[in-house]
């Protein structure tokens, strides 16, 4: 049994990121640096001065966010993990190799690539 986490996507599809990528639901990926925490004014105002300094330091910290952009809605993206983005990259490259074989390698190398 497959133990991968399943997600419900906006188009009603229920499945894993891998299945969604194979269905061609995404058009591109982006790696973005975003704040580690979101600013909360109410929480900040309730803190004393030393707690506020620690909070401000955490606001300056960033984390890496991996985004898969939805094909049908150009501005919409899904936050994915690194594994899903690497899988998307691999499939995208294989698709490009199939469409433009002369750009990458000779015929024997292509046969070896698509046997696996």
Describe the structure.
The chain has one domain (7-115). The longest helix is centred in the last third of the chain and has 18 residues, at 82-99. The model has no long low-confidence stretch (mean pLDDT 82). It has a 3-stranded antiparallel sheet with strand order 3-4-5. It is α+β, with helices and mostly antiparallel strands. The chain is built from 6 helices and 5 strands, in the order ββαβααββααα. 47% of the residues lie in helices and 23% in strands.
Q: How widely separated are the two ends?
A: 23 Å
Helix-residue proportion: 40-55%
Strand order of the largest sheet: 3-4-5
Summing up helix and strand content along with how strands pair, one would put the structural category as alpha+beta
Described by the principal axes of the CA atoms, the overall outline is: elongated
Strand content: 15-25%
Query: In total, how many beta strands?
Result: 5
Count of individual helical segments: 6
Order of helices and strands: EEHEHHEEHHH
Mean pLDDT: 82
Q: Any low-confidence stretches, pLDDT <50, length ≥5? A: none
The number of distinct structural domains comes to 1
Oligomer: single chain
Alpha carbon gyration radius: 21 Å
Biggest sheet architecture: 3 strands, antiparallel
Task: Offer a quick outline of the entry.
The protein is 47% helix and 23% strand. The chain has six helices and five strands; from the N terminus they run E-E-H-E-H-H-E-E-H-H-H.
Please name the defining characteristics of this protein:
alpha+beta, three-stranded antiparallel sheet, 23% strand, elongated
């Amino acid at each position: 049994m497959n133990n991968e986490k399943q997600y419900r996507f906006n188009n009603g599809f229920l499945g894993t990121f891998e299945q969604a990528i194979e269905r061609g639901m995404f058009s591109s990926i982006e790696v973005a640096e975003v704040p580690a925490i979101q600013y909360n004014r109410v929480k900040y105002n309730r803190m004393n001065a030393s707690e506020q300094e620690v909070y401000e330091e955490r606001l300056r910290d960033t984390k890496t966010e991996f985004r898969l952009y939805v094909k049908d809605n150009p501005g919409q993206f899904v936050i994915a993990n690194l594994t899903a983005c690497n899988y998307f990259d691999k499939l995208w490259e294989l698709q490009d190799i199939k469409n433009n074989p002369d750009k990458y390698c000779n015929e024997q190398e292509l046969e070896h690539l698509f046997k696996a």
